[in-house]
Amino acid sequence: MSTATEMLAKYLTAESALLEGKEVRFGDRMLKMEDLGAIRSGRLEWERRASVESAKANRAAGIGGLSVSVASFNNAPINNRNSFGRN
Q1: Is residue 30 part of a domain?
Q2: What is the residue-level pLDDT of the chain in tens, covering all 87 positions?
Q3: Does the residue 74 lie in any domain?
């Protein structure tokens, strides 16, 4: 798990607990319902960061960050062709 997804999980847990009326310890701070706005703001920021990390990881799966597609200009399935493009 990345730092962003770990932090997102912590913020989601804290937000859920606050909504259930519980107090939450976040480091050395004790958070209460009146801190819900700050928790939600932090959650949104970590959601954004996790999304950026995920998008980067998905792009890295291609060649040099580029995705690759294969085109076939006849009716033969690509996976049934030999290395010369003939059936």
Answers
A1: yes
A2: 789 999 999 999 999 999 999 999 988 999 999 999 999 999 999 999 999 988 887 765 555 556 666 666 776 665 655 555 555
A3: no
E-state strands within the chain: 24-26, 29-31
The Cα–Cα gap between 54 and 45 comes to 14
Which DSSP state fits 66?
A: B
Count of structural domains, the chain: 1
Instruction: Render the burial of 46-74: b for 16+ CB within 10 Å, e for the rest.
Output: bbebbeeeeeeeeeeeeeeeeeeeeeeee
User: Residue 17: inside a domain, yes or no?
Assistant: yes
